[in-house]
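Exam revision sheet. Question 4 asks you to relate a sequence to its structure. Input first:
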Amino acid sequence: MTDELIACELTLAGQTRTFSMRPPRDPDAPLVLVLHGNQPGVSGRIMHEWTSFAAHADEWGIAVGYPDGVGGCWADGRGVTTADKAGVDDVAFLRAVIDRSAEQFGTHPDRTIIAGISNGAFMSHRLAREAGERIPVFAAVAGGLPAALSTGEPTHAVSAMLINGTADTIFPIEGGHSRHLGPNGELRGYASGLTESAQYWRTVDRCSGDDSTITTELSSRRTVTGGVGGTQVAAWTVFGGGHTWPSTSVPPEWANSPDADTTREFDAAVEIYRFARPLLIPADARKL
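Answer key, structure tokens:
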């Protein structure tokens, strides 16, 4: 399917940044930006292979973008990635991708859905906080809210779908520090777990509506509604799930990892879009 992607680039602060686009069938479509995890040398196209957004793009009437992090990672605010240490402004980059997509492909500039895994999940939290006027909905898989971002008030309510596995040792569901230790071996880069991250967004969004939980043999999903402008927050626990994207097998070289278990109960891309579609709420209605 990679032949349907268009290679794009833009210059930001004197640096050339790249991304790939799967253009929409029709103009004025929502844009989904899919953010990869931290892996040196990786590009956004890996998420084209790992997720089913592009396969459903025409059916759903969306465009899909796959941005490339500098050095295969994102400056997500934890202060532990090479991009963070280099002072890369990934919020500005992803804003620019949204704008370029609107200009070049006709996507709607304030109907962007962000979906990321691991380092991309942490970055999704950051972008939702700092660019909430563009992003009505975000999804974070196998990553929580970086503690460094928990202070200060976002300008807009943003609906959130948070998905974590109980067997994830890279980012435990209860939260934890980065595996990348400081120069003296100190712990750093703490991020909140599923429960705390969901509570943060429910508080930001001022959710006061229905609080419902659906539990199956394989997972449990709690959704709280009634946020500003109709926003919602869903927290999805995957029983026995590892550091994986639900429905997608890890590469063969990772198959023996204790974090390789992935659920087949649901496709994360399908459920993220199903959650997001009715929540593409104009920025003015979500202003805090």
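Marking note for examiners. DSSP finds eight helices and twelve strands in the chain.
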